[in-house]
Amino acid sequence: MPSVRIPTPLRRLTRDQDEVSVSAKSIGELIQELEKQFPGVKERLCDEHGNVRRFINLYVNNEDIRFLKGMETEINENDVVSIVPAIAGGNGNGNSL
Amino acid sequence: MSYVKGLKCRECGREYPKEPVHVCEFCFGPLEVSYDYDELKNVVSRELIENREHNIWRYRELLPIDKAPSLGFHVGFTPLLKANNLARTLGVREIYIKNDSVCYPTLSFKDRVVAVALSKAKEFGFKTVGCASTGNLANAVSALSSIGKLESYIFIPRDLEQAKIIGTSVYGTNLIGIQGNYDDVNRLCSEVAGRFGWGFVNINLRPYYAEGSKTFGFEIMEQLGWRVPKHIIIPMASGSLLTKIWKSIKEFERLRLVDTTETKIYGAQPKGCSPITTALKNGWEIFKPVKPSTIAKSLSIGNPADGFYAMNVIKESGGFCEDATDEEIIEGMKLLAEAEGIFTETAGGVTMAATKKLISQGVIPRDESIVVSITGNGLKTQEPLVDKVAKPHVIQASLEEFEELHSRIKS
């Protein structure tokens, strides 16, 4: 099963697990599946239209899904999906204009 | 008296009290300061502002402080000059330079944001402040924390240029060189802010800090005689300055300090780090993060935090964007120096080069008012110019040799 890395601010919802396994064939399915196992996760990841929130980055094996197929991005058995909040001010813009 | 209501998430709208926090704990969106504009309308007037000292605090009701400002009494109110030589060179009617290359005390617009952030830090009761930076921000935090008698820790990548290190450490800060890149430095600073409970100007104080950029826009409008220019060109790294200049215009319009007119906002990036301009030129809805490679190091942010919002402002205002190669950046620096006697840093070269292109492409018309935002000083980024400007003519101390040299120069 693909594994999902959970960032610290969401671990309260995953009973403190930093990595969970989820059976899914696409990112869309994966989010549904996560919600089933850990209710409340979906609204943290997606907005009211079901799109991934702008300041949440989802990576499949280090590739941002925005540059893959978004929600339709396929996932295979051994893939690692990372959920990474893009924390404003903490992502390399120390010298920013 | 304060007109600050609190903080608000730019994404989901959740509200937060005035605290040193910068990220929405629900959706991870950035927090922004919100004001009571209805109340402000009754208080703020041109006369009130005009009767105050020439520094950023003349706009204090529109800055996120609750008590009287405690430092930065010489920061801001930099010259807005009508650049007649430049107008002739570029073939335009009316062009102005907003010149923060002479901002007090560390010669960049970062003095504005840091003065606001540290005034707020003192209100919050922080005794120790810090930042993650590679240059202008480090200089400003170091100098202004000395003035404010705050202890400071400044984190930089360890392989920075000598000039930037000395321009920070001379003020007596604790300068920490990290073995890693900016991303590593920033990540560490987030952890340090949490563990030690310090105020980091561009992390947990960021919502307050970023508001300081509005004074750049307020001053442009006041100095134009309470008018808005038709076109403003602004350099972009994270995109924050551009969004805050837009906010400054919207606030002045809302408070009826200026007439509502249409200002178009243009963003400039170096070609070697142009995620925002590339996205806009290609009509993409989102930008693609890049790995920076440019001489304009103060604009080297491959994954700009406010990039999305900057794109929205540019589109909403009807402006556009342009980028500049390293060669064009240097030409831009020389153009401004030779025309107006202003030695700007590489970021200013980017802005000048973009301005020139947008005018020659006909995107910016030649008969409307234009303001070019110059945000930093060339003395801090001399390295790329070493082989690009003339070397001195070396002669003996002899009149004959000079006469001979002079005739050669004139020929």
Quick structural overview:
The complex is a heterodimer of chains A (97) and B (411). Chain A is an alpha+beta fold and 97 residues long. Helices cover 16% and strands 20% of the residues of chain A.
The CATH topology of chain A: Ubiquitin-like (UB roll)
The number of E-state strands of chain A comes to 5
Average pLDDT level of chain B: 95
How far is the N terminus from the C terminus of chain B?
67 Å
Query: What global shape of chain A is seen?
Result: globular
C-alpha termini separation of chain A: 43 Å
The whole-angstrom Rg of chain B is 21 Å
Strand arrangement in the largest pleated sheet of chain A: 2-1-5-3-4
Number of H/I helices of chain B = 15
CATH class of the largest domain in chain B: Alpha Beta
- The radius of gyration of chain A is 13 Å
User: What is the SS-derived class of chain A?
Assistant: alpha+beta
Q: Which oligomeric state applies? A: heterodimer
Strand tally of chain B, please?
A: 13
The CATH homologous superfamily name of chain A equals Beta-grasp domain
Q: Which class of chain A in CATH terms?
A: Alpha Beta
**What general form of chain B does the structure show?**
globular
Helical content of chain A (DSSP H or I, runs of 4+):
10-25%
Q: Please outline the major beta sheet of chain B.
A: 6 strands, mixed
CATH-assigned fold name of the largest domain in chain B: Rossmann fold
Based on the coordinates given, report the CATH architecture of chain A.
Answer: Roll
